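Support reply, case 0932

Customer input (verbatim):
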Amino acid sequence: MSYEVSKLKLDDGIEVFYRHGGSADAPVLLLLHGFPSSSHQFRNLIPLLTKQYKVIAPDLPGYGFTSIPADLEYKYTFANLTDTIDSFLTKLSIKKFAVYIFDYGAPVGLRLALKHPEAVTAIITQNGNAYEEGFGAEFWAPVRAYWTSHSPDERQALKEKLLILEATKWQYENGSLHPDKIQPESYYLDQALMERPGNKDVQLDLLYDYRTNVPLYPDFQKWIRESKVPVLAMWGKNDVIFVAPGAEAFKTDVDPSRLENSFVDAGHFAIETNEERYAEAIQKFLDKSLAETEG
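Our regenerated output:
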């Protein structure tokens, strides 16, 4: 394993667990995971990138091994997740970074960009959405219904449908060309951590709060457009959660000279069994972006 695991205690008592590797003076690449995973989803990608980059992959609050003091009464919202990762980066003295955004990591990364417009040097989006076109209608229909009603019955229905092992495994395997080659500890670990007391309520709170990201999409898009940040949109084309038109939508706000858009014949967790392909594309993209910045 060519990376380390650490915990960093923040001023509010939160201990952020993270995987990291690479030279201390190398350009920083921040990897932001999605639901229902953790930095564990990057376990095979990180070692492929640490020769040239300082790679940092934190567990968002509510996921993996990041721990929240009970007396903090932490509210699980995307605004608070963003503030926690912002504090984490500040504690590490990281002021500039490229960011890999996936699923829930997308609104966190893009909210960070709104808070610190000059900090983000490049975006790698892997089924990390910033456009209405990116929502898979069938998957999101019951979630949107819950956004509208906030009813206990619809909350319970989502719990029974989405927060079970079958659904977690489905997120990994659906759309994959090689589901039999996906390491099963991925979805078993995700589910085991979700079964911790109170964690399913955390997941339901965040599913409900995801609605607060959508009104920010125009702001995300404006920042992308005005910052002229280079973007690599490399999505699993078979994903039914964040669908392919969401990747195409980046063309609206990113000049062709700064956009690389491609699809992998994979599902939601597209890096599973495709780590080498992603690592090669990311390295070429960041090398080019860094050279243009320095030039």
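We compared this against your earlier run and they match. Two observations from our side: The mean pLDDT is 97. The radius of gyration is 18 Å. Please reopen the case if you see a mismatch on your end.
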